[in-house]
Amino acid sequence: MAASRGVMPGSVSASRRVWVLRVAFVLIALVAWEALSRSGLLFKDVVPSLGAIWSALAKVLSTRDFYANLGVTAHEIGIAVIIGGVTGLAAGIVLGANRFLSQAFESLLLYLGPTPKIIFFPVMIMWFGVGTGSKIAMGVVSCFFPIAISAAAGMRQIDTVLIRVGRSFRASTWQMVKSIYLPAMREPIVTGLRLGLGVAIIGTLLAETKLSNRGLGYLVIQSYALFDMPKMYALLIVLFVLSIGVNALIGRFSHAQRVAVR
Amino acid sequence: MTAATRSRGSTWMRSRAGARVVGVVSTIAVVALVELLIAAGAINAFVVPKPTQILLAIPRIVAEENVLHRFWQTAQEVIWASLLLAVFGIALGALLFRFLGLRLAFEAWVGALAAAPIVLMYPLFLVIFGRSTTTIVMIGFAAGLAPVILKTVDGLSGTRKVLIDVGRSFKLSRSQQFWKVLLPAALPAVFVGLKLGLIFAMINIVGVEFLINFGGLGQLINELAERYDLPGTYGAILFVILASVLFFAALERIERWLRPVA
Lengths: 262, 262
Prior knowledge:
The complex is a heterodimer of chains A (262) and B (262).
Chain A: H1 12-39, H2 50-62, H3 64-97, H4 99-112, H5 121-128, H6 132-157, H7 160-168, H8 173-184, H9 186-210, H10 216-225, H11 229-261
Helix pairs in contact in A: 2-11, 3-4, 3-6, 3-9, 3-10, 5-6, 6-9, 7-8, 9-10, 9-11, 10-11
Chain B: H1 3-14, H2 16-39, H3 51-64, H4 67-98, H5 100-115, H6 122-129, H7 133-157, H8 161-169, H9 174-212, H10 217-226, H11 230-258
């Protein structure tokens, strides 16, 4: 930190200055946006005024249609995370518990994990149709990998003493999973779920923008197709707030769990 | 078979190489099983083409669909995005490191940006930049920016005090201190950030090519799927997976090569 300058972290003046900087940044961004909107430098409506976006946001949030589509997307993501979470967790536990299986198959997970999942969407449409099935499948494919990789890594971090204690009590496989593995892996599981949920949201919503007639992704791409820019901006704001909010909520849960364990 | 031979065989089976062979053989066995099930009519050939048809389709799409040209198009987009990431990501990271107030105010926001589903903003980028290469490159850049900034800040902050003191004893100017001491010391961490940023950029670039039906490999999958060329679609997906794996492997190699420099 020797080359950093400005304020001493933790002090009252530092925290005040941080807030001033943040508020100043937001205000400058908003003023710049409004100025750009009124300048006529860009095509009309590409950068709508803040008032137009605000009223579109209020309108979107007050319509029943929005909540119906939010329900569809939440349903798809929820089922995807349940299926992807359970299968990912099972695969991670099996690979993490058995070194041979890990050496034989984990490279498949590691290679397929970071590939762009949306390219599987045509295959998902052929397998599960154009309805919610293919969107759920996209969510499952997206969230399976981070959860499985995280669970496998978590299994390997478990204190071997705990495993030996379980074995010395002649615990069955299910008892080992329930009483030793899962409690000891709480943190990597939450991290995996957090990552998995994030990519499941992206996978499901992108699939909705590509081919769907329901869901928030559909609403976004429809407002783009109709060139209803204020509505599109409003929907993107809602999507960002929801995604970051859910992520922060799981992060807070993970933090609370860590504190409780200590 | 003697006991010694049996024991050698069993040891080889348990070795890393043995596990890998088992992994490859099991994967081939699953593919062969799928081939048989399709031939027997248990799996619909109009939904899942035979693996042999997929393999035969690869040379066809390489010759007829200009795969190498498309690969180069995608590679160019990734190169442009990586240049932008290196220039702006490292510069912004250095700025946050240099001014502690800015770091305290905005580092958490950059972290939130890393969790934000930026690719969902592609309709917005379409409106601003049109259906063009610029849209694809800018989404790749935006998606990969946060890890580069965060790891640059980490790397610069982790510079050993003794190195900074040596720089001071030589009465280096602030700029010399940055270019000759801080940046070289932070290079391994900066490269980890660039690697993560490039992975995010590549995933999003191929994804957006698919979604907006423009550009290189992503568009190829979309076009083949729209033509209902099933073996071609599966073959193109395999090709993209192979390209991604080679890309990640190359990044790993470069990272390992850079590590001793630290």
